[in-house]
Design goal:
The chain contains twelve helices and no strands. By secondary structure, it is mainly α. The two termini are 13 Å apart.
Length: 207
């Protein structure tokens, strides 16, 4: 009966084929989000999974990031403790400046590095290609040269913790990327992205 009521409401605005297309879109959005939510509950347990998924939805509607990218990013990072996933996603979002391709590339590199327990050349190259070189931040903090740090990386001495700290420093107060997503969200592109996120959330609620 609710779908019939929705059909009648939408039918007053769109042609019959467009109203059917609109309702199908609502069902598709709901189905996709429900599938993501189930995967989070399976991977992290219902309580932690529901909280993480709720945080991702809220983050998507208040920043230029889209929920699908954030959800898939969180799934990629599930070898990391659930409590650390959102802070890392926020840091990567700031560094990527809301760019979906750079965001996905940084998430993958971070996940690969976390799996091996150290920074390796291919992961570093992937991060650099996405616009961030953690060795630069580590060099600033330690006073060591980039070439010296690359030597340590070859010896397996650049740990996950050192790189994670570089991400945190770059996006923390005083860091080059601090508050980047918030600033991006105030521009036209960010406002449109926020609207898209809010609209997707509304379609999910209707579904």
């Amino acid at each position: 009966s609710r779908l019939r009521g929705l059909r009648n409401t939408v039918g007053g605005i769109f042609a019959v084929d467009k109203s059917a297309e609109y309702i199908k879109k609502i069902v598709d959005v709901r189905g996709e989000i429900e599938s993501l939510q189930i995967s989070f509950e399976t991977l992290a347990g219902k309580t932690k999974g529901d909280k993480l998924f709720g945080d991702i939805k809220e983050f998507a509607t208040s920043t230029p990031m889209m929920m699908n990218d954030l959800a898939k990013g969180a799934q990629t990072l599930f070898n990391i403790e659930a409590e650390r996933v959102m802070p890392i996603l926020h840091q990567i979002g700031d560094i990527s400046m809301g760019d979906s391709q750079k965001f996905n590339s940084l998430v993958l590199a971070f996940a690969q590095m976390s799996s091996t327990g150290k920074l390796m050349g291919q992961d570093l190259l992937q991060m650099i290609n996405a616009g961030f070189n953690p060795l630069v931040v580590i060099a600033e903090k330690t006073g060591k040269s980039i070439s010296a740090l690359k030597g340590e990386m070859s010896d397996g001495k650049i740990s996950v913790e050192m790189v994670a700290d570089a991400f945190a420093s770059a996006t923390g107060e005083g860091g080059k990327f601090h508050g980047m997503l918030e600033r991006q969200s105030k521009g036209m592109k960010g406002a449109v992205s926020n609207l898209e996120g809010a609209w997707q959330d509304a379609m999910n609620a209707m579904g």
